[in-house]
Fold these 2 entries.
Entry 1:
Amino acid sequence: MNTLKGPFKIVTKEMGLTFYINLALTIGLFGLFYFLSFRAEGNEYLGLIFGPFYVVFLIYPFILFKSYKFILSMGGTRNHFLISTFFATLMYLVIGVIVLNALYIMSEMIFRDGYIFHMADLMSDSNPVMYFWIDFLWLFILFAIGMFIQVVYFNLGTLRTLSGGAVLVLATIALYFFIDFSPIFEFIITDHLLFIHLLALGALVSLVLSYFMMRNAPLERGDRKIFNTTTSN
Amino acid sequence: MIKIDDLSFAYDNKNILKAVNLSEPEPVIVGLWGRNGSGKTTLMKLLAGMEKPGRGSILVDGVAPYNNSEAMHHVTFMQEDHPYSDLWNVDDVLNFGPHFNRNWDLALADELIDIFELPRNKKIRTFSKGMKTMITIAIGLASKSPVTIFDEPSNGLDAHMRKQFYDVLLDSYEEHPRLIILSSHHIEEVEPLCEKIAIIDNNTIIHYEETETLKNKGVHVSGLREAVQDFTRNIRVLEQRKLGKQLNVMLDVPFTDDLKLQAEQAGVMIEKARFQDYLVNLTKKETKMHEHT
């Protein structure tokens, strides 16, 4: 018997409701832009439809993390939780990318005037596969960022996470004043495709780190001990 | 079934369990009794593989449970406040069950849901405390895991529900014998079901005996102070109360005909102590301090 089936069902159940709500929101947005396209003039920018999906993939880890407890209490392991989370996310990610791009392609066919923005529009490559790939990468990056934050928060708890976050913010502000960021901004604009792939690589690394932090994670949030101390009675 | 060797577990610089040893090779119903904070829940979490042993080893039905994907088919642990998603109804849980337990008995699960009159399509989050306990009991029994653990299984149940629980537990056990551990801090609630009882205190298991043997221990002796003191000279005293010239003590000995005869000859009153009172006195701090002095 495949021991992943039960944990996978629990995670997909936890993610499903949010996914369908976002699907409805995205289709609703598309309907709104379709209506607006009849009032647009020329090649006017109407808006974007990827917003709900991009936001939800960033916050998905905070939603699906409840299933950690459910899976353990049904008899599953931490590995079950992690692997089923990755598979379920991949499944919803692929469906999300297909839906977004199907709507985008439809918009080009049925909108009378105007256009909706796609993240791949930032690149000078009109290959349709690139449009799918860019959405895939962005959803993956956003999910990995959310997952890493949630895993750190779960392991270290509110106080230690906020303290670490504050230090990071201060360090970033200090760097902003002392280092010239213009070459980086230039790189993001001129070599956008490479930038996104580097971000995706960073996202992959953060997912691997998340996996190692959760593999022996505590049962309750904030219970991770960084330094082992001697025990007493 | 279960084998625990020199198990220790510490949390936050404090020993929760230390040097725990327990071996039970037979499929029996075991009561696990301990006062609040004695380490019962931690021991059950370790048996279920939810926590990693600090030292020593645990084998449940032949497998080490921590982070072991195979362990889900060998042990089921139903917690006191078992977590259920806000999105789940009874049918969802019954749908997940077979994927976590190789022995899952769908017919038994359905039967238990009907017996407990649980609404199948209502979200579990809307259930009362008693209904939540009943769905937890239903999952635990339907899992038919070789080792099934219930933490405070009768919590929130009224007298009628409790009787239903006892009946279905014994029927299910008779049909499919397995090691069932029932944890409680009210021993009277689980003792009638248990063949053996494990007492956990001071971070370890201090007694693991047949229920009948353990139940027979704990004797109240009362009478004139001198007579009682003479009678209890070489016997472990768990508690004593003075009332003028009278002295009332609880002794850690079995209640036997021989002891009754000795009491009669010594001119003191003797009677069996309540089991729960005996256990409370056995594990209270004053008793240990008295022993040390």
Note: The longest helix of chain A spans residues 128-178.
Entry 2:
Amino acid sequence: MTKSLFQPVIVGAGPAGVRAAQTLVAHGVRPVVLDEAPRAGGQIYRRPPAHFQRSAQNLYGFEAQRAQALHGAFDSLKSQVDYRPDSLVWNVQGAQLDVLHGPTQTTHSLPYRQLIVATGATDRVLPIPGWTLPGVYALGGAQVALKYQGCAIGQRVVFMGTGPLLYLVAYQYAKAGVAVAAVLDTAHFSDQLAALPAMLTQPAVLAKGLYFLSWLRAHGVGVHTGVRPLRVLGETRVQAVAWHDGQQERRLDCDAIGFGYALRSETQLADLLGCRFIFVQHQRAHLPERDAAGRSSVAGVYLAGDGAGIMGADAAEWAGERAALALLADHGVAVAAARAQMLEKRLKRLQTFRSGLERAFPFPRAWAAQVPDELVVCRCENITAGELRRTVQATGADEINRLKALSRVGMGRCQGRSCGVAAAEILAHATNKPVEQVGRLRGQAPIKPIPIHLLHAPAAERQA
Amino acid sequence: MDTWQPLLHRVAESDRAAVPFTLDGQAVSALEGDTVLTAVLTQCGQLRRNEFSGEARAGFCMMGACQDCWVQAANGERFRACSTFISAGMDLTTGGALA
């Protein structure tokens, strides 16, 4: 084994990717770190452009120390890793990644033998009519606007959906001086009570959640639980939101809405790598299979962080380190077995808490049955719930890729990132099948849009 | 009518150098470190029109996933607005009603 030939590639520089890189460096290995963003940190610890001035305390609140520790760890590694920011992995073929460099709009191929996939997550969205209006943003997107750009998505904002992020983002907006018109949670208070025992396994995290909630209430923000979002109203931008409170329809004026239902894993790269997927019931998603250490079903490919299943930022750090240790051990490098075991134990222990979160903020299973035919499911190509239902009726399609071929849902620029969850739920409901039986959207290259001339560039040029 | 009302509102980090650019033919100004999305939506209410419905769009995910924020430059070049920084002299179009 010569060390110079041993250069693992890490995709993603969020909590998982950074800790994976740090672990490899600590064992004398110099990894390549590819990250689509211009600065490391991922989404939850996303860093604003370098000359912005807010303090870490202001940007990350309770998580300031964690964010600073992660940023500091990566900054201290810079001379020991081959760090390539602004680099989108858009394809994999053979043992080569195709990488688009954003600022120069050039693409090149990068060979790899070992790969740690830490691609993170985006908001899980269940749309309602009107969600395409300017002023409606994903919940995480609303947070990005504030954290990364110092901007609010509106002057009178409603936060809607469910999940811990709902209260966090509402709190961050209110703290920044933005009027939060209401928080509309589809979960019932009884869900949260029932989840309490599991949530108490991470008392500090639970305490933070309760703090946000009580702070919002103390500052006069209306928090409504057990709601069913109905529609966003407005002609050319958001003017109001309507929901059902269990008894009657209600309506509130606002000029922006941030909404989401927890997170969904970014799994396209794992898919293109040929990783085997399984349906994970409590996440209601098809996810790449991995062992407790993060090994995928493909030799040399390791999975860590929210991209392999939603476990949150702390778990991502542990999983990134654990996956790197597995990669090293598989390559014959001596690693501390006790440390590896401890990380696995921590990750396992966190699962109780995560299942508590799923209980406290449950996926609204009735959504597909309730949305009207006129709902635009696919933002890219403007395909409605009615079109999906009629396609199922007319053709008997009962598998998501078949429905995609027939209706074009999931075929637009987002490749199903925005609409995939919703389309699968509608298909499952229309065919009267459990959602795990309607399949999963297959990943396709390019994972994200790239300039078309690059697809046909001669190999030599692509190597540039 | 309300197309030229901004959608995004600055609440912090306003002490930055100005970056002049052109938006639907008008000379406007952003701040250094703004994304194209921020630069445009602190001026007006949309980034583009959807190719199928013709309706105004202003992005959605803000993190490079949904691809609903592609903005066209006057010369035909396209930028994903949430992940491209504004630079001086950019000449952008939104498909908005001209003021």
Note: Chain A touches chain B through 53 residues (CB under 8 Å).
